[in-house]
Write a structure and sequence with these properties.
Oligomer: single chain
Number of strands: 0
Largest sheet: none
Shape: elongated
Radius of gyration: 33 Å
Number of helices: 8
Low-confidence stretches: none
Mean pLDDT: 86
Length: about 180
């Protein structure tokens, strides 16, 4: 069995006050995250099961009360955002600036050179989808391909249209 958590009397009093003045379910859970282990002598895992949250969440809630008792200001929320990004949004924008110049001059942009330059910039291998997501994040989109093949011969197409039969004969049936 896991060892029970230890709390100071100030933390327990702050938790009781939290429970008494709770306006939301989260505030109630924060207070109970200390009271349940203290009063019943159970582990944080058992308290988490009772509160319907994860064990790590119970520990975070307990830390919040400990910080308030210690007089620390409430920390800003660190949830959300891009935690696994190689570059910040501004760095990505700076990285893409030279490619934008090429695109504005009418150049065709393809991902493999951008991908190679990105890998060189960050110093490790990444999937091509990382570059596609980066381009989408900065408002780039996939442009539809041309409506005709670049090696087509317009003159031979016109000749074919002029000289082809208007109606094609039906091929003879094999059964007749």
């Amino acid at each position: 069995m896991a060892r029970p958590a230890k709390f100071t009397e100030n933390a327990v009093e702050a938790a009781r006050l939290f429970v008494k003045e709770a306006e939301t379910a989260r505030d109630l859970r924060i207070g109970l995250s200390i009271l349940i282990p203290k009063i019943f002598g159970v582990s944080n895992a058992n308290a988490a099961e009772v509160l319907g949250v994860g064990k790590a969440t119970v520990v975070r809630m307990q830390k919040e009360i400990r910080d308030r008792v210690a007089g620390k200001s409430k920390p800003k929320a660190s949830w959300g955002g891009r935690r696994r990004g190689h570059l910040s949004f501004e760095q990505e924008k700076e990285f893409l600036d030279p490619w934008i110049v090429t695109a504005e001059r009418g150049g065709v942009l393809v991902v493999p050179p951008i991908h190679a330059a990105y890998e060189e910039r960050i110093g490790c291998h990444v999937a091509a989808s990382t570059v596609y997501r980066m381009l989408a994040r900065h408002g780039w989109r996939k442009i539809a391909p041309d409506t005709c093949h670049p090696k087509r011969d317009a003159q031979s197409q016109e000749d074919f249209k002029k000289n082809s039969k208007k109606r094609w004969r039906r091929p003879p049936s094999r059964m007749s």
